[in-house]
Specification:
Helix 1 (2-18) runs parallel beside helix 14 and helix 3 packs across helix 15. This protein has a six-stranded mixed sheet, with helices on both faces. The protein is built from 15 helices and 13 strands. By secondary structure, it is of the alpha/beta class. The protein has helices at residues 2-18, 33-36, 38-46, 60-72, 83-93, 111-122, 128-135, 138-147, 162-173, 220-237, 258-273, 285-289, 291-297, 315-327, 354-367; strands at 50-54, 75-80, 101-103, 153-156, 183-190, 193-198, 209-210, 216-218, 244-247, 279-283, 309-311, 332-339, 345-347.
């Protein structure tokens, strides 16, 4: 715990030396989001329109974002919920959703097929009766629409937990070929500066995975390395040329412990598997971002002092770290963006606003570019 807090305190000190204590508020009427999304919007304009499922169709934040997406014409929103209740909520809020598809699981005409496919996917872990009951839940119903290729991606979680978004995704959509775990990335933006951080939301810690005989089938370092590669992939989506720092309370062997060893080993795994990715570690945060400190503590490193993609040793430091950057560093935090799944499925914060829903919709649709099983208009 003390070592984790040391990493966070260094993070805080570096940020506080170079940035204002609070983020500058945009001028009245100014919308900072479009300029950040220009590249993603251009990608969406160049391809077929993507269809996104929103699992909380009666939520006013979802409805406001859906109305805006409809007006933009970039994405086709599909709202889940009772048709009358969704329309009533939209009318009450003054949101124009005329023409948008609203799907009610309780009245879905092709539910029998979804039930059969659900049972087949779960391979004996759910009866038809159980599958039908679960598919009446918006999160499972929406995820099944993505699995069936009836939508390109899903956005949910404005009113329920991250686990309730991730669980159906793991059970139905599952991880992409070659992926061993789901992770998350936060993108932080301040002016023209963009950085990526992972994993800040999904993996509590990294432990060796063992078979029945006690043999290691997937080491903790391999898991961290996978998170690093996936985070670099997400960073590129935002135009970041990733330089990956494996963070620790130690730099280049300055301290001993299983944590520094794990991050050092993970860096080596990334370099071996992806020589095109600049990756070094283990290193402290100041060594990662301050050139003078980085080259002093980690001489010869091409990453130390210049990192823009930061991998944390566990969720505690990652979650605290990105929030420090957001609240004291003046960065806008975007995410968590889920990684490693077969299709784009993302989780909203329960404290999100309509602007953040809109933003995550653009990101989720952009993730769908190049994915298989997409439905084009």
């Amino acid at each position: 715990m003390k070592k984790c807090m040391s990493l966070i305190l260094v993070f805080l000190m570096v940020l506080s030396l170079s940035v204002p204590v609070w983020a500058e508020e945009p001028a009245a009427g100014e919308n900072a989001v479009p300029s950040m999304l220009d590249d993603l919007v251009e990608r969406l304009k160049a391809g077929p329109r993507r269809t996104l499922v929103f699992t909380e169709g009666t939520d006013k934040r979802i409805l406001e974002a859906a109305a805006r997406l409809k007006q933009d014409g970039l994405i086709t929103p599909v709202l889940i919920g009772n048709v009358d209740e969704v329309r009533a909520a939209a009318a009450e809020g003054g949101f124009d959703i005329e023409g948008l598809e609203i799907l009610d699981p309780a009245a879905y005409p092709d539910m029998d097929r979804l039930v059969d496919d659900f049972v087949a996917l779960r391979k004996g872990k759910a009866t038809a009766e159980q599958a039908r009951e679960m598919l009446l839940m918006p999160n499972y119903f929406g995820t099944m629409l993505v699995k069936e290729g009836l939508a390109d991606g899903l956005l949910g979680g404005a009113t329920y937990s991250t686990a309730d978004t991730v669980r159906p995704a793991l059970q139905l959509v599952k991880t992409r070929e070659g992926a061993n775990l789901v992770s998350s990335c936060m993108i932080l933006i301040r002016g023209n500066e963009k950085i990526a951080m992972g994993d800040c939301a999904i993996n509590i810690s990294y432990e060796d995975k063992l078979d029945d005989r006690g043999n290691v089938t997937l080491s903790a370092a391999q898991q961290v390395a996978e998170v690093a590669v996936e985070t670099a992939r997400t960073a590129r989506l935002f135009g970041i040329d990733p330089k990956i720092a494996m963070l620790s309370y130690s730099t280049n062997g300055s301290a001993k412990g299983t944590g520094p060893d794990m991050m050092r080993d993970a860096a080596e795994i990334v370099r071996q598997a992806h020589p095109e990715l600049p990756c070094d570690g283990e290193m402290q945060f100041d060594a990662a971002v301050v050139p003078e400190v980085g080259q002093l503590k980690f001489p010869g490193s091409t990453v130390a002092g210049y990192a823009n993609t930061f991998i944390f040793p566990e969720i505690q430091s990652g979650n605290i770290g990105y929030k420090i950057a957001q609240r004291l560093g003046g960065y806008m935090a975007i995410g968590p963006i889920l990684q490693g799944l077969n299709a784009p499925i993302n989780d909203l914060s329960r404290g999100c606003n309509a602007e953040e829903v809109y933003l995550m919709s653009i990101i989720t649709a952009a993730q769908a570019i190049g994915e298989t099983g997409s439905r084009s208009e």
